Amino acid sequence: MYNNAFYSYFRLQSFSLGLSFTEIAFKSLQLFTMPVLITMILVAVAPQIPEVLSSLGLPSRVTRDMRRVGKAVVRGRLLFVLFGVGLMALWPHIQPYGWVAPLVVDCGLLLSLAAPTQRQPWKRGASITMAALLLIWAVGMAGSQQGEKAAERTARQLVQRTSVVLLSTERLTMAGSPGPLVQDLGAGQHYRYRYSRLHLLVERDKRYYLIPMGWDHRTGPTYVIDDDDSVRIELYPGTQPPR
């Protein structure tokens, strides 16, 4: 979801780029944002908190209070589910945080696993399956949101990406506005045409995806250049912000 949202912002299909499994897996790990991880960990360990406190030698009164609080949270699991469903009913009004709705329902389902009424295997299995599906949904939506934000940040900070100078034996059709700066170096030059003010978005299998300076999401073009004998591609450092 992250890759698809990121490259779609630049009018590219992530599946056509030939990303490796390692790259996709690494990006997928970024989808588990800190709030999602903290919430899931707290829900998972909540039933074991009284036992942990007892093992630390804390007074029994503290342990009893924590156990009482834990049982109250488990009893209120249905409220989590209803609240999450209510957020889904308000779907257009909670964007771009729609992923919170299935996450809240997911918390309620996970809490139900600690309830005494959930001892039957089929009930536990149904709760676990539904919780897993909701988690995938929430992570997918969060990933799309992160990918689009990363793309917007990339477009704003385009000068920081690798700068590209493209030299070609023939004049290239690089339409769109804004476009690159084109220079005719003269008929005596092997690479007669020079294209600058370009930045590298990604490179895959000798194919370069370039973005011109001043790129705009609504009208800006994305150029796809194959590296062959008719072109020479020079890469330079982008402009880094002062430290």
Keywords:
243 residues; alpha+beta; 2 domains; six-stranded antiparallel sheet; 8 helices; 6 strands
Give an overview of the whole structure.
The structure is a single chain. The protein is α+β, with helices and mostly antiparallel strands. It folds into 2 domains: 2-156, no CATH class; 158-236, no CATH class. The protein is built from 8 helices and 6 strands, in the order ααααααααββββββ. Strands 1, 2, 3, 4, 5 and 6 form a 6-stranded antiparallel β-sheet that branches. It is elongated.
Helices, strands, pairings?
Elements: H1 2-8, H2 21-29, H3 34-45, H4 49-55, H5 60-75, H6 77-89, H7 100-112, H8 121-156, E1 163-168, E2 181-184, E3 193-204, E4 207-212, E5 223-226, E6 231-236
Antiparallel strand pairs: 1-3, 1-6, 2-3, 3-4, 4-5
Helix pairs in contact: 1-8, 3-7, 4-5, 6-7, 7-8
